[in-house]
Amino acid sequence: MNYTTRRKAETAVSGAAVVGACLGILAVIPFEAWLLMLVLGAVHSVFLAVPAIGYGTAVLFVIGWNLGAGMARRLFRRK
Fold this sequence. Notes:
The protein is mostly helical. It has two helices and no strands. The longest helix is centred in the N-terminal third of the chain and has 44 residues, at 3-46. The mean pLDDT is 86.
């Protein structure tokens, strides 16, 4: 196997890994949002100062939280 063929094979494998990771993250977001909605609903039933949110708002919160965590990780990583 020459260098070019080996390099293409390595790129294909890493590309598949990236696609798999992205699909995994996208599959977890609805579950995280559902749990957030349930937890905030339970806390809302005890403390009325905590707002009850719907599923769409919970999805947006989870996406924002994940984006913020990614940006903070990139900002504070070692070089």
